Amino acid sequence: MAIINFRGQQEDKKRTPKPVLVGDYMARNLITFRPDQSVMEVMQLLLKNRISGGPVVNDKRELLGLISEGDCMKQISECRYYNIPMADALVEKFMVTDVQTITEDVSIFDAANMFYKSHKKRFPVIHEGKLIGQISRRDVLKAALEAEANHW
Question: Is-contact 49 39, C-beta < 8 A?
Fold first, then answer.
């Protein structure tokens, strides 16, 4: 007796997995800061929004640096030491300007390697010189879990 297959002819199920990119998981709606903004205002925004830092940009959305809780701590310490009013301190004096960036077309696995080697918590994502987003360690973890579910 012959065996009859009622499913019809099947296509080869092998397919190449779609690459998982930084652009797929990065945050796009960022809280950004200006260089002429007061550090006191930055501290308030960091606490209010439960974030540990953010990018500093100009009016053209070009990245100028990053400011973090640690940079604010430095400002608190210096103001106390030099007896300077905290309200006079501006972001441009305390932000970090040597910033490592990433592009949206980088593999999430390459991004994970960058995080591992640099010990950074976040990388600004740049496209044609403009800030378009930010990728964090948490974003990479989420991407890895979702990719693993698809058998990466």
Answer: no
Nearest to 144, CA basis, from 27, 26, 20: 20
Neighbours of 64 (CB within 10 A): 19
- Quote the tokens at residue 68: 């973090």
Residue 16 located in a structural domain: no
In eight-state DSSP terms, residue 132 is E
| Helix locations, the chain, DSSP H | 22-25, 39-49, 69-82, 91-94, 108-118, 137-149
Which CATH number is 70's domain given?
A: 3.10.580.10
Instruction: Please write the tens of the pLDDT for every residue from 104-141.
Output: 999 999 999 999 999 888 999 999 999 999 999 999 99
